[in-house]
Amino acid sequence: MGRIVMMVLRNIFLVPIMWFKLCYYAAHVEKYTEEQRYEMLRFIDHRAVKGGNVRIDVYGAENIPKENGFMFFPNHQGLFDVLAIMEACPTPFSVVFKKEVAKVPFLKEVFACMKAYMMDREDIRQSMKVIMSVTKEVQSGRNYLIFPEGTRSKNGNKIGEFKGGSFKAATKARCPIIPVALVDSFKPFDTHSIRQAVVQVHFLKPMYYEDYKDMKTTEIAAIVHDQVQKTIDEHLAE
What we know:
The structure is a single chain. This protein is an alpha/beta fold. About 45% of the residues lie in helices and about 15% in strands. The chain is built from ten helices and seven strands. A seven-stranded mixed β-sheet has the order 1-7-6-2-5-3-4, with helices on both faces. Helix 2 (about 15-25) packs antiparallel against helix 3. The protein is globular and about 55 Å long.
């Protein structure tokens, strides 16, 4: 909570302007291109990250595909995760988020600007509709992020099981799968400290359709999980 207050106070004159702009963009999504909306969100994100005394160290940015129509699969440590990846990634992407955060102020407007999809994990039919919609959008050139753990890990840098179902949209779209390893992303909001926090974002080498076409989604999930955990373990001391 203290860091969020610091983010606001250090941007006190910008906050009302950017809040108005965020709400306007969210209410008039079709007026703006995805690049314009993402640029606006990244500006807010950058000011919040800087104001919150957080440093983002980015690794493997060259692994982000040059052509659109790919999906990120990061480990999930907390609410700061998307902020960290957005700061690290110049390429627009959207997200699939769980219904529990659908009405959270600020997040609600951000998700509207991203034209994100809400998934109800308890409603199989609704979840399948989301998977099919994301598949079509990725095939048309949009990029998406899904947290394959389904919910945030409460064990810091020890990640949970990656669920095979999270990869269905990617396999149906036959798109590049980019594992993303987040290190210490829980620290900005979950440690009750306002000292500088350093978050690492590692974009790992993509898995292309030719790499995974003969695999089950559970096998893909296990491979991505192990790559992400290995990367985290290798960089914890940095």
